[in-house]
Every structure is written in C-alpha cells, then in structure tokens.
Amino acid sequence: MSTLTTGETASPPTRRAAARRIAWARIGAYVLLSLFAIVYVGPLMMLVITSLKSMPEFMKSATALPTSLRFENFVEAWEKANFLRYLTNTLIYTVSATAIYVVTAVFVAFPISRGYVRGAGWLLTLYIIALFLPVALIPQFQLMLNLGLYNNPVGYVMLFLVNPIGIVILVNYIKTLPLELDEAAAMDGCGYLRFVTSIVFPLIQPAIATIAVLHAIGIWNELILPTIYLTNKDYYPITRGMIVFQGVYGSNWPTLAAAVLIMTLPMLVLFLVLQRYIVSGLTAGAVKG
C-alpha cells in the first residue's frame, strides 16, 4: 500500500472530509458566539423594549414588543431624575479624575518600564499584588475625615487617582518602545519632561485609550464610594441619583428603564469611539513582561 510522500497532495475524498470538518467547526463557532451574543445583548434589548412601552402595556406583557414607541419616557426620566445636575457632576468627576490619573500614570510607568528607578521590578510587583488586595474602606474613611475631605467633591475625585491595572498596562506597553529613542533624545539634549510629553505620549496612544476607558467606566459606574462619601444631593453622581430616582419612581418600570439607558449612553459612546485602540492596547500591554 502506497503512502503519501512529502510534496504530494491529499486525495479528493480526504480534502472533502477536511473541508467538512472545517465547515462544521465554523458552524459550531458561530452557534457558540450567537449564544454568547444572546446572553449579553438580550438583557440590553429587554431594557430598550421596556423603555419604549407605556406602563399599562408593560403590566399587560413585560416581554412583548411595544405596539407604539413611547419616547416620552426619556423626557419624563430626564426631568424627574434631575439628570442635568447628576450628569454634570459625574462628567466633572470622571473627566478630571481620568485626566489626572492618565498623566500621572504615564510619568510613573515610564521610569519603571525603563528601569530608571532603583527596584523597578519590585515596584511593578507591588502594583500587581495591589490588583488582588481589597479596598481598605475603614482606614480610607478615617483618612478622608481627618483631612476634611468628607462630603467634598475634591476628596471624592482624589479617591480615583490610583489604579494599579493602568500602571501595569502602561509599563508593559512602554517596554515595546525601542530604547534607542531614549538614547537619541538624550544625545539631542531633549529633557525628560519634553521627551515623555512629545514622544512617549503619542506612541502609547492605544494604551492611554485603554486605561482611560477602563478608568472612566469605573468612575461612572461607581456606587459604593459616592454612597459613603457624598451626602449632599448637590454633589451626587448619576449612580447615586439613580437610587433616589428608583426610590421615588421605582414602580414605573418604563421610565426607570429609560433613565438607565440615559445613564449608560455616554460610556457607550466613549467605548465605541475608542474601541479600535482598546484591543491593541490590552494585547501589547499583556504579552510583554
């Protein structure tokens, strides 16, 4: 019985069997991905459907499609939930904390990635360990009280100026930049501050976009910290305001669903705008050590 030698092509039946296996594997992958899509998108679609119903229609059938689109729910939610104030507060907290964090994180991550500070490897290890440590709420609360930052927007923003995952991503991403850039800049007399702002920042835009989105979403969706540290309604972020809105209008599910969609929309837009940077930022920051 003859066997295939190197360079010989497979027989037509063998090629057909291989093609069938590939086709079935592809179909299985599509089915699996479709199931995952249903699991993730299904609740969001139910939220959209609910937000477009009237209250009697929702009580009649919570899962049926709306017979008419009731966009008045969004207007009602905007007016009753005091969204303008809460969204303004949340935007101030999110933009200021994210901007300060990104800038400071780059200046911390660059010398660690290059080994310009003593014990850079140990510092990176400490940041990795910090990813698995719980938040020390009681010491943090006492510190905020002693510093006079309780029920203070400035103190609330300061709670979000440290995030270990961003440092880890930036350190590993900056390691992908050639060291010759540092040497060329030093030979040309480029200062450290100018080098980081003019050269490093533009080259690590995917990593910056990644940590900016992760950090901003974390601040936007934070609920525990504003509940603890902000007691004045004038300082409430959107998540804390939603609790107040739910307590008053919790029985009106269509309006509540519309309010949740309004709260989700800004972060969804931010994610869609920066989506193309996020994958490259995470992958490049994950494979380098």
Features:
single chain, 289 residues, mainly alpha, MetI-like fold, 14 helices, disordered C terminus
List the helices and strands and how they pair.
Elements: H1 12-51, H2 55-60, H3 72-80, H4 83-114, H5 120-130, H6 137-146, H7 153-158, H8 164-174, H9 180-187, H10 192-203, H11 205-220, H12 224-229, H13 238-249, H14 253-287
Helix pairs in contact: 1-14, 3-14, 4-5, 4-8, 4-11, 4-13, 5-8, 8-11, 8-14, 11-14, 13-14
Task: Describe the model.
By secondary structure, the protein is mainly α. The protein folds into two domains: 12-51; 72-287, MetI-like fold (Orthogonal Bundle), CATH 1.10.3720. 74% of the residues lie in helices and 0% in strands. It contains 14 helices and no strands. 25% of the residues are buried.
